[in-house]
Protein: Beta-xylosidase
Amino acid sequence: MATTIAIFKMKSKKNLIGCFILYFVIISCTKKRNEEQNTPSLPPLAQLEKRDTIGSTTDTIAYVNRSPNASEILNFNNYLNNTENIHPKVLYFSKGWKGYKFWMAYTPYPQGDVKYENPCIAVSQDGINWATPKGLENPLDLPFENGYNSDTHLVYREDLDIIECWYRPYDIKTNKNAIYRRVSSDGIHWQNREVIFDFNDVQMLSPAINFENGKYKIWYCLGNEIRYIESLDSSAKRWPKTFLALKFDWSKFYPWHLDVIKTEKGYEMIVCVWEKAIKGANNNSADLFYCSTDEANKVIDQPYPILKRNTNKDAFDYRSIYRASFIKVNGKYYIYYSCISNNWTRSMALSFGSDINDLHGYVKKSK
Structure:
């Protein structure tokens, strides 16, 4: 009888241990399944090539190029099946947004043909290799009679978890522009376009837009100066009738297209600029300048050059540095700049560095 009880106790103990093991296995599997369910699934195209990884602690982007000019373009096809892409605005999401870490608005501009200059979207996982997100058909808008759609900019609304593509339709006959916006909650499906400023409203060139503290802030070039306005609410429908002219010294230069980011310093800006003293100089013979203000729009840095046209006549960035966009990730600046070659081919390239005054042009690593 005692032997039977002992065996029963041993079996009970083993059963109890087995139950505990089974319990922990079930809990572990449930936790893993919940984590998988709560992890955003990546669209098929999210598995893009990752040769260099901007923003990672294992950032492999090379510093071998001592020149700020890149040695090759960012080679991705647009809806025309060419790579003549310009006017980038890049957003970086450290944890990704809808499956991608990098989102870009841009326009194709092959040989300067305005009928193809229409807003497009591209995505990347490493900031180097770009593609159209699966399910999206570029462009976001089509050309209209006697006009074109230029000057793309991308805005993220963290409060609504949406992205907004702003762009500038220009009427050639009237020499006036408007500002349109399209909004998306996934980057694939876009709401109908909205008119933010119509053709009879304020005129602005290449607006750079941030959304902060429930308001839109816009910097734009016009009349040989950089101007600033901010919306009266979060709708982007109500604006003041006046603007603020930032007190930069443009006496020797003409500012054209710009980008603005907010950093620990304040508002940092990169502007494509040409020199007034050079006969025949214009936006097709520009260099890239840097300037900055504090949060109260007081000038910190007067404009000065950081990336000049390439001196090599065969280089893709020989003729002009065009509109550029930049991000700052883990203390490094990454400047996506568009440019024009001697034969008028448009391209996009990358320059980067921990110091805005010591940039390194991107060189592709060998596989």
About this structure: Helices lie at 2-38. The longest strand covers residues 85-97. Residues 2-38 form the longest helix (37 residues). Residues 1-39 form one domain.
